[in-house]
Amino acid sequence: MTEKNPLVEGLAIPERTRRLLIISKRDAPAARAGAPAGSNRGPAPRRARSPPCSRWARSWRSGARERQAKTAGGPRQAQRSSADGPVVRYGQALVSKRSVQPEARGTRVIEVAGGPRLVVPRGRLTAVDGPSAGHTIAVEAAPVVVGAGDDVDFTLADPAVSARHLEIAATPLGFRLRDLGSTNGTFVDGRRTGEVWLDEATEIRAGETRLSFTLEEGARELPLSRAMNFGDLLGHSPPMRAAFAILEGAARSDATVLVLGDSGTGKELAARAIHERSPRRDGPFVILDCGAASPTLLEAQLFGHARGAFTGATEAREGLFEAAHGGTLVLDEIGELPLDLQPKLLRALEGRTVCRLGEPRPRHIDVRYIACTHRLLEAEVRAGRFRQDLYFRLSVVTVRLPPLRERKEEIPRLVSHFLGKLAPGAPIDLPRSMLDLLASHTWPGNVRELRNVVERFLTLPGVPAASLLGTSSGAPGGAELGGLPIPVGEPFHEAKRTWTERFEQAYLEHLLARAQGNVSEAARLAGLSRQSCYRLMQKHGLRVE
Ligand SMILES: Nc1ncnc2c1ncn2[C@@H]1O[C@H](COP(=O)(O)OP(=O)(O)OP(=O)(O)O)[C@@H](O)[C@H]1O
């Protein structure tokens, strides 16, 4: 039996696989709501220790708790008390109030003579035993992902640890540990946990490895911008304003910039705004997607070629280095650049000359470079997939755009921004219930996903709020291609990009359905590398269990 996906009309997904996809879509509300309370195997989750919080944070989180209570299957609260203060039980989650000042543990903003600063406390994570005993890492402004994979910040050589096992992040409320859906679970002080606030000294177990987390003396101070946007990139949370301070400095200089951040966090917007604020603003702005083409094509695209340089090269062609002369070249998805092209790129960046393929004559180029990637490039270097010398050359200025889940206070403003853009002149507000739902989502597709949700809200009136999260969208205007609506209300380039994103998502859903959730098989069927397949899945918030 097949069932039509109401949001991608014309495309039918078999019911069994549709269930698989919906359940595995990260944070799919339907899946969460359907999960039986207490269905986790293993010991009961650890009581989440929650530090006292400022007023906005408290009301924001209390909304989340209510939602959590609802999705966990109704009013199942039981009051009890502990040494820390009153404890309120909501389904699986236990939240307690602590009496320690949050400043001692959380990030905070201070005003000093030179302008506002973000103060980030220092934590340290150390493997106490197991094969990686003695390994240690500082936990500061950027979250630390721990796992057995080689693309994480802290790799544990432990077969019982999942590739991406857990994450520790500094937040205004203290250091927060989150299990990333690991197979064998994360245990804090001996109890299995999903999410927990960490104390000054906490024992954590992942797989067979014992880890110790400790708070260290001192804190890092990061300058904050006073601005609430950088070009089209909106942001008023401290982590975004810290990023803006770096971007503003970078725009004034001609330095090479490395923009890091998960898919949909606005890396391309940041690159464009750097160019537009730089002395090169009147020069060309050229983007190369390093993950999109085969290595041979990529080389020809970058360097250009002489006539007859290879079969099919019937005409001489300039490459993107030359096309960007006098302006900015964005090396998008630089983490996907094939290893054998990396030394050639490095030579071009350092020598400031390029030779077209099949032509010995070097041509002078004057280009400013910005590289973007969703990968942890340092981890790629450690894993031998990215050359260290190229990494150093690209990371003259490094800026990381935080994921939306770390700055949920920005959601209402972003929603208004997208409503204004997508429905100009129509004074529309999102209902409170919808905003609450958005606050409880963890946004694997980041701001891009939020924009898509707002668009769905506008184009599918009457659809329940929960169904708007994490599914393909409709669009205004009525035009469609292959069953996917074309957003004719948008300018051409925006519409093309939106449609392409819809296509990618719909294609991927069907591909995974066809491959019964087997990513290797899906990649084989689509003629993609497994990495590209995972990248697209991450971009569209799809995950198979
Ligand atoms: N801070 C922001 N303010 C306003 N819009 C944003 C912001 N961040 C992202 N967006 C929107 O999200 C979409 C994706 O942004 P962008 O392409 O810059 O992300 P990216 O990080 O480069 O993603 P990818 O790695 O998948 O290429 C854009 O349509 C943009 O409008």
TrEMBL record:
Residues 24-87 are annotated as: Disordered. InterPro entries: AAA+_ATPase, AAA_lid_NorR, FHA_dom, Homeodomain-like_sf, HTH_Fis, P-loop_NTPase, Sigma_54_int, Sigma_54_int_dom_ATP-bd_2. CDD domains: AAA (cd00009), FHA (cd00060). Keywords: ATP-binding, DNA-binding, Nucleotide-binding, Transcription, Transcription regulation. One of its GO terms (molecular function) is ATP binding. Residues 30-43, 50-62 have a biased composition (Low complexity). PROSITE patterns: FHA_DOMAIN, SIGMA54_INTERACT_2, SIGMA54_INTERACT_3, SIGMA54_INTERACT_4. The keyword Nucleotide-binding applies. Residues 233-459 form the Sigma-54 factor interaction domain. SMART domains: AAA (SM00382), FHA (SM00240). One of its GO terms (biological process) is regulation of DNA-templated transcription. Residues 144-193 form the FHA domain. This is Sigma-54 dependent transcriptional regulator.
